[in-house]
Amino acid sequence: MDVSLIAVLLVLGAIVGFAAGLLGIGGGMLLVPFMTMVLTARQFPQEHIVHMAIATSLATIMFTSISSVRAHHKRGAVLWKVVGLLAPGILVGSWVGPWIGAHMDSSTLALSFAVFVAFSATQMLIDKKPAASRELPGAPGMFGAGGVIGVLSGLVGAGGGFVSVPFMTWCNVRIHNAVATSAALGFPIALAGTLSNIWFGMKEAGLPEGSLGFIYLPALFVIAIASVTTAPLGARTAHSLPVKSLKRVFAILLYSLAGYMLYKGLR
Protein backbone atom coordinates (compact mmCIF):
# COMPACT_ATOMS: atom_id res chain seq x y z
CA MET A 1 0.00 0.00 0.00
CA ASP A 2 1.14 3.55 -0.69
CA VAL A 3 1.51 6.18 2.02
CA SER A 4 -1.64 8.08 1.03
CA LEU A 5 -3.79 4.95 1.34
CA ILE A 6 -2.28 4.12 4.74
CA ALA A 7 -3.05 7.67 5.92
CA VAL A 8 -6.66 7.40 4.72
CA LEU A 9 -7.13 4.05 6.46
CA LEU A 10 -5.59 5.35 9.71
CA VAL A 11 -8.02 8.27 9.77
CA LEU A 12 -10.90 5.96 8.89
CA GLY A 13 -9.86 3.52 11.62
CA ALA A 14 -9.71 6.31 14.20
CA ILE A 15 -13.22 7.50 13.32
CA VAL A 16 -14.59 3.95 13.25
CA GLY A 17 -13.06 3.14 16.64
CA PHE A 18 -14.56 6.25 18.21
CA ALA A 19 -17.99 5.43 16.75
CA ALA A 20 -17.73 1.85 17.98
CA GLY A 21 -17.17 3.00 21.53
CA LEU A 22 -19.75 5.78 21.33
CA LEU A 23 -22.62 3.88 19.73
CA GLY A 24 -21.87 0.20 20.32
CA ILE A 25 -22.12 -0.52 16.59
CA GLY A 26 -18.73 -2.15 16.14
CA GLY A 27 -17.81 0.48 13.55
CA GLY A 28 -19.03 -1.66 10.67
CA MET A 29 -21.90 0.60 9.72
CA LEU A 30 -19.36 3.36 9.10
CA LEU A 31 -16.63 1.21 7.67
CA VAL A 32 -18.51 -0.70 4.97
CA PRO A 33 -19.47 2.37 2.89
CA PHE A 34 -16.02 3.94 3.22
CA MET A 35 -14.22 0.67 2.47
CA THR A 36 -16.46 0.33 -0.59
CA MET A 37 -15.23 3.77 -1.72
CA VAL A 38 -11.59 2.88 -1.05
CA LEU A 39 -11.72 -0.46 -2.87
CA THR A 40 -13.57 1.13 -5.80
CA ALA A 41 -10.87 3.81 -6.06
CA ARG A 42 -8.20 1.06 -6.00
CA GLN A 43 -10.02 -0.57 -8.96
CA PHE A 44 -10.63 -3.88 -7.23
CA PRO A 45 -12.82 -6.36 -9.17
CA GLN A 46 -16.31 -4.86 -9.17
CA GLU A 47 -17.99 -8.15 -8.35
CA HIS A 48 -15.96 -8.52 -5.13
CA ILE A 49 -15.87 -4.94 -3.77
CA VAL A 50 -18.92 -4.98 -1.50
CA HIS A 51 -18.21 -8.52 -0.30
CA MET A 52 -14.64 -7.55 0.62
CA ALA A 53 -15.72 -4.29 2.28
CA ILE A 54 -18.20 -6.19 4.44
CA ALA A 55 -15.75 -8.99 5.32
CA THR A 56 -12.90 -6.60 6.17
CA SER A 57 -15.23 -4.48 8.26
CA LEU A 58 -16.43 -7.50 10.21
CA ALA A 59 -12.85 -8.60 10.91
CA THR A 60 -11.90 -5.21 12.37
CA ILE A 61 -14.73 -5.52 14.90
CA MET A 62 -12.81 -8.28 16.70
CA PHE A 63 -10.27 -5.63 17.69
CA THR A 64 -12.54 -2.62 18.27
CA SER A 65 -15.04 -4.58 20.35
CA ILE A 66 -12.38 -5.72 22.82
CA SER A 67 -11.04 -2.20 23.22
CA SER A 68 -14.50 -0.66 23.51
CA VAL A 69 -15.97 -3.21 25.91
CA ARG A 70 -13.08 -2.83 28.36
CA ALA A 71 -13.94 0.86 28.74
CA HIS A 72 -17.67 0.13 29.16
CA HIS A 73 -16.99 -2.70 31.61
CA LYS A 74 -14.98 -0.41 33.89
CA ARG A 75 -18.14 1.65 34.27
CA GLY A 76 -20.22 -1.42 35.07
CA ALA A 77 -22.43 -0.83 32.02
CA VAL A 78 -22.15 -4.24 30.29
CA LEU A 79 -25.02 -6.64 31.04
CA TRP A 80 -23.01 -9.86 30.93
CA LYS A 81 -26.04 -12.08 31.58
CA VAL A 82 -27.65 -10.66 28.43
CA VAL A 83 -24.42 -11.26 26.50
CA GLY A 84 -24.42 -14.90 27.63
CA LEU A 85 -28.03 -15.43 26.53
CA LEU A 86 -27.62 -13.80 23.10
CA ALA A 87 -24.13 -15.12 22.22
CA PRO A 88 -25.06 -18.75 21.25
CA GLY A 89 -27.63 -17.60 18.68
CA ILE A 90 -25.26 -14.90 17.49
CA LEU A 91 -22.48 -17.41 16.81
CA VAL A 92 -24.81 -19.53 14.66
CA GLY A 93 -26.31 -16.56 12.85
CA SER A 94 -22.95 -14.87 12.22
CA TRP A 95 -21.71 -17.94 10.37
CA VAL A 96 -24.88 -18.18 8.26
CA GLY A 97 -24.93 -14.45 7.33
CA PRO A 98 -21.74 -14.46 5.20
CA TRP A 99 -22.89 -17.72 3.55
CA ILE A 100 -26.05 -15.93 2.42
CA GLY A 101 -24.00 -12.93 1.31
CA ALA A 102 -21.67 -15.12 -0.76
CA HIS A 103 -24.67 -16.12 -2.87
CA MET A 104 -25.74 -12.52 -3.53
CA ASP A 105 -24.33 -10.12 -6.13
CA SER A 106 -22.76 -6.83 -5.01
CA SER A 107 -25.75 -4.64 -5.95
CA THR A 108 -28.22 -6.78 -4.02
CA LEU A 109 -25.87 -6.88 -1.05
CA ALA A 110 -25.49 -3.08 -1.07
CA LEU A 111 -29.27 -2.60 -1.27
CA SER A 112 -29.80 -5.07 1.59
CA PHE A 113 -27.31 -3.08 3.68
CA ALA A 114 -29.17 0.16 2.94
CA VAL A 115 -32.58 -1.30 3.86
CA PHE A 116 -31.41 -2.82 7.15
CA VAL A 117 -29.64 0.35 8.23
CA ALA A 118 -32.50 2.71 7.28
CA PHE A 119 -34.99 0.57 9.20
CA SER A 120 -32.80 0.61 12.29
CA ALA A 121 -32.32 4.38 12.06
CA THR A 122 -36.08 4.91 11.83
CA GLN A 123 -36.73 2.76 14.88
CA MET A 124 -34.16 4.71 16.86
CA LEU A 125 -35.31 8.15 15.67
CA ILE A 126 -39.00 7.50 16.39
CA ASP A 127 -37.99 6.75 19.97
CA LYS A 128 -41.34 5.15 20.73
CA LYS A 129 -41.55 4.39 24.41
CA PRO A 130 -41.81 0.63 25.12
CA ALA A 131 -44.56 -0.71 27.35
CA ALA A 132 -43.43 -0.43 30.95
CA SER A 133 -44.07 -4.13 31.50
CA ARG A 134 -41.98 -5.31 28.53
CA GLU A 135 -38.82 -7.22 29.41
CA LEU A 136 -36.18 -9.21 27.60
CA PRO A 137 -37.51 -12.65 26.57
CA GLY A 138 -36.47 -15.95 28.14
CA ALA A 139 -33.58 -18.15 26.96
CA PRO A 140 -35.31 -19.56 23.80
CA GLY A 141 -36.39 -16.06 22.73
CA MET A 142 -32.92 -14.67 23.38
CA PHE A 143 -31.37 -17.46 21.30
CA GLY A 144 -33.73 -16.59 18.44
CA ALA A 145 -33.03 -12.88 18.77
CA GLY A 146 -29.29 -13.61 18.81
CA GLY A 147 -29.66 -15.67 15.64
CA VAL A 148 -31.39 -12.80 13.83
CA ILE A 149 -28.79 -10.30 15.05
CA GLY A 150 -25.99 -12.63 13.94
CA VAL A 151 -27.41 -13.30 10.47
CA LEU A 152 -27.99 -9.60 9.73
CA SER A 153 -24.60 -8.62 11.16
CA GLY A 154 -22.73 -11.27 9.19
CA LEU A 155 -24.64 -10.31 6.05
CA VAL A 156 -23.90 -6.58 6.18
CA GLY A 157 -20.58 -6.58 8.06
CA ALA A 158 -21.64 -4.80 11.23
CA GLY A 159 -21.18 -5.44 14.93
CA GLY A 160 -24.89 -5.97 15.47
CA GLY A 161 -25.57 -2.71 17.30
CA PHE A 162 -27.92 -1.55 14.56
CA VAL A 163 -30.23 -4.41 15.61
CA SER A 164 -29.25 -5.24 19.19
CA VAL A 165 -29.39 -1.67 20.55
CA PRO A 166 -32.97 -1.01 19.28
CA PHE A 167 -33.98 -4.52 20.42
CA MET A 168 -32.68 -4.01 23.94
CA THR A 169 -34.10 -0.50 24.32
CA TRP A 170 -37.46 -1.84 23.05
CA CYS A 171 -37.27 -4.28 25.97
CA ASN A 172 -36.68 -1.42 28.44
CA VAL A 173 -32.92 -1.77 28.68
CA ARG A 174 -31.37 1.64 29.35
CA ILE A 175 -29.64 3.05 26.23
CA HIS A 176 -26.21 3.29 27.87
CA ASN A 177 -26.41 -0.36 28.98
CA ALA A 178 -27.67 -1.37 25.53
CA VAL A 179 -24.71 0.34 23.84
CA ALA A 180 -22.21 -1.24 26.26
CA THR A 181 -23.75 -4.72 25.93
CA SER A 182 -23.84 -4.39 22.15
CA ALA A 183 -20.11 -3.61 22.20
CA ALA A 184 -19.51 -6.90 24.05
CA LEU A 185 -21.63 -8.79 21.52
CA GLY A 186 -19.41 -7.48 18.73
CA PHE A 187 -16.66 -10.02 19.38
CA PRO A 188 -18.64 -13.27 18.88
CA ILE A 189 -20.33 -11.68 15.86
CA ALA A 190 -16.99 -10.72 14.34
CA LEU A 191 -15.26 -14.00 15.16
CA ALA A 192 -17.87 -16.27 13.60
CA GLY A 193 -18.43 -13.92 10.65
CA THR A 194 -14.70 -13.57 9.94
CA LEU A 195 -14.15 -17.33 9.90
CA SER A 196 -17.17 -17.72 7.63
CA ASN A 197 -15.94 -15.02 5.22
CA ILE A 198 -12.52 -16.68 5.04
CA TRP A 199 -14.07 -20.10 4.39
CA PHE A 200 -16.53 -19.04 1.70
CA GLY A 201 -14.16 -16.47 0.17
CA MET A 202 -11.41 -19.06 -0.35
CA LYS A 203 -13.66 -20.66 -2.95
CA GLU A 204 -13.85 -17.45 -5.01
CA ALA A 205 -11.58 -16.85 -8.00
CA GLY A 206 -10.04 -13.50 -8.92
CA LEU A 207 -9.57 -12.02 -5.44
CA PRO A 208 -6.70 -9.47 -5.29
CA GLU A 209 -3.31 -10.06 -3.69
CA GLY A 210 -3.36 -9.59 0.07
CA SER A 211 -6.76 -11.21 0.48
CA LEU A 212 -7.58 -13.99 2.91
CA GLY A 213 -10.90 -15.19 1.66
CA PHE A 214 -13.00 -12.03 1.31
CA ILE A 215 -10.85 -10.15 3.87
CA TYR A 216 -8.34 -7.57 2.61
CA LEU A 217 -5.56 -8.02 5.17
CA PRO A 218 -3.51 -4.80 4.62
CA ALA A 219 -6.58 -2.64 5.30
CA LEU A 220 -7.57 -4.80 8.27
CA PHE A 221 -4.22 -4.31 10.02
CA VAL A 222 -4.02 -0.53 9.51
CA ILE A 223 -7.64 0.12 10.53
CA ALA A 224 -7.39 -2.16 13.57
CA ILE A 225 -4.35 -0.31 14.93
CA ALA A 226 -6.13 3.06 14.74
CA SER A 227 -9.57 1.92 15.89
CA VAL A 228 -8.30 0.15 19.01
CA THR A 229 -6.71 3.42 20.09
CA THR A 230 -9.85 5.56 19.79
CA ALA A 231 -12.59 3.11 20.88
CA PRO A 232 -12.10 3.77 24.64
CA LEU A 233 -12.46 7.51 24.01
CA GLY A 234 -15.80 6.90 22.30
CA ALA A 235 -16.95 4.72 25.19
CA ARG A 236 -16.12 7.43 27.73
CA THR A 237 -17.95 10.02 25.63
CA ALA A 238 -21.06 7.81 25.45
CA HIS A 239 -21.49 7.92 29.21
CA SER A 240 -21.41 11.71 29.27
CA LEU A 241 -24.17 12.22 26.65
CA PRO A 242 -27.91 12.34 27.43
CA VAL A 243 -30.06 9.46 26.13
CA LYS A 244 -31.98 11.45 23.49
CA SER A 245 -28.80 12.96 22.03
CA LEU A 246 -27.18 9.54 21.76
CA LYS A 247 -30.20 8.11 19.93
CA ARG A 248 -30.30 11.10 17.57
CA VAL A 249 -26.61 10.77 16.70
CA PHE A 250 -27.09 7.07 16.09
CA ALA A 251 -30.07 7.61 13.73
CA ILE A 252 -28.53 10.43 11.67
CA LEU A 253 -25.33 8.47 11.18
CA LEU A 254 -27.22 5.39 10.00
CA TYR A 255 -29.38 7.36 7.54
CA SER A 256 -26.30 8.90 5.94
CA LEU A 257 -24.66 5.53 5.39
CA ALA A 258 -27.86 3.93 4.12
CA GLY A 259 -28.08 6.66 1.48
CA TYR A 260 -24.62 5.96 0.12
CA MET A 261 -25.14 2.20 -0.07
CA LEU A 262 -28.51 2.74 -1.79
CA TYR A 263 -26.71 4.85 -4.39
CA LYS A 264 -24.06 2.13 -4.79
CA GLY A 265 -26.66 -0.62 -5.18
CA LEU A 266 -28.70 1.25 -7.82
CA ARG A 267 -25.73 2.19 -10.03
TrEMBL record:
The chain crosses the membrane at residues 48-66, 78-97, 109-126, 138-158, 178-200, 212-233, 245-263. It is found in: Cell membrane; Membrane. InterPro entries: TM_pro_TauE-like. Pfam families: TauE. Keywords: Cell membrane, Membrane, Transmembrane, Transmembrane helix. The keyword DNA-binding does not apply. The keyword Membrane applies. Its main location: membrane. It is a multi-pass membrane protein. Belongs to the 4-toluene sulfonate uptake permease (TSUP) (TC 2.A.102) family. This is Probable membrane transporter protein. It comes from Noviherbaspirillum aridicola. The lineage of its organism: Bacteria, Pseudomonadati, Pseudomonadota, Betaproteobacteria, Burkholderiales.
